[in-house]
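Re: beginner question about structure tokens

> Can someone show what the tokenized structure looks like for a real chain? I only ever see the sequence side.

Sure, here's an example I had lying around. Input first:
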Amino acid sequence: MDFEQLATARHSAVNFEKDFKMTEADFEKIFNLTKTAPSAYNLQFTNYLVIMDDDKKERVRALNYDQYKIHSASAAVIVLGNRQGIEMENAEKIYGPMKMLKMMDEHTYDMTMDLIRGYSEGLKTNDTLVREEIIRNSGLHAMLFMLAAKHYGFDTCPMHIHNVADLKKEFNIPSHLEPIMLITIGKSVDKTRPRGYRKPVGEFVQFNSF
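And the corresponding structure tokens:
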């Protein structure tokens, strides 16, 4: 399907076919598209924890108000913002190979590192800025994940994530990874569910000024 069809076909699934099981190969295809998502300075702030095991999914469900769609989904995907994304070590890991392969010259590399260093130091003056940055970047990544999933024939539902401290403890999530949202994925029970009301473009778009 073309992008217009893809965008209109994607909807938030309210329930999933419980017996349908996705494979790690399915996720590999989805994430190979998802990784093309934009991020600030290409620092790629987003990580994922894919919970496919039924018992572990039930633990996610218990921490998120016992929502049935977590039970029936093929997987519960925890979207994580990586606080280490703004560290220079991460930037060097991404840009160093580009310099080595002559994809960027020494001057461009040094200039890029200087820009990222200033960006990183500015964010570190206020933890709220760091959190806003990882949420912004992870949100872009997560949206592309859902579109990629639909491209390959899977349905998703983005969800608020609850009891974050308990979730991190339960799944041994490292301290630098911050749960941002939860996405359930599988095959939707409802194949042709009407889309909820959407505002006309004129109600939410202004040109040049308000």
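Each token stands for a local structural state, so reading them left to right follows the chain. The mean pLDDT is 96.
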